[in-house]
């Protein structure tokens, strides 16, 4: 009698057990592991120097703290420019960072740096008297790597 009741119980409850298992697996897959998960160590930009290689120039950037960086660019002709910039710095997760700053000449830089993939996507906005808004912009992509200070 006990075997029959157990088999009947299992036969009737397998859809519920299957659904519960599926929900648990789905929740586990959607959980944000970037904040404090064991084994995943966040890589910060702060206190480090990165090299960003764009098609038209290379930039060595010292991320001094969460409000200040120093950049030094070298273009394809060898011209060097450098400046300190006050920044908005926002980590998006353990390997993605959003930065924004306005340079002395009015160029506005907005970047997303992916330290895991070694990529940078930047939107540059600058003055342009040839357009009605007075500003133009362009999206540029580059490669990112940490270098020794």
Automatic annotation (TrEMBL):
Pfam families associated with the record: MoaF_like (PF22036)
Keywords assigned: Signal
Signal peptide positions on this chain: 1-28
Coiled-coil ranges per UniProt: none
Superkingdom field: Bacteria
Residue ranges of domain MoaF-like in the record: 47-130
InterPro entries reported for this sequence: Calycin (IPR012674), MoaF-like (IPR053892)
Name used for this protein in its record: MoaF-like domain-containing protein
Lineage: Bacteria, Pseudomonadati, Bacteroidota, Chitinophagia, Chitinophagales
């Amino acid at each position: 009698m006990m075997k029959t009741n157990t088999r009947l119980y299992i036969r009737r409850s397998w859809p519920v057990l299957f659904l519960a298992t599926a929900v648990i697996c789905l929740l586990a897959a959607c959980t944000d592991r970037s904040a404090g998960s064991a084994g995943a160590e966040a890589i910060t930009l702060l206190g480090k120097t990165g090299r960003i290689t764009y098609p038209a120039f290379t930039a060595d950037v010292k991320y001094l703290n969460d409000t200040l960086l120093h950049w030094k660019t070298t273009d394809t002709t060898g011209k060097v420019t450098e400046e300190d910039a006050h920044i908005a710095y926002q980590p998006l997760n353990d390997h993605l960072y959003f930065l924004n700053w306005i340079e002395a000449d009015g160029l506005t830089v907005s970047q997303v740096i992916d330290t895991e993939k070694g990529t940078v996507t930047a939107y540059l906005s600058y003055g342009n008297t040839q357009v009605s808004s007075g500003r133009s912009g362009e999206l540029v992509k580059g490669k990112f790597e940490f270098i020794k200070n």
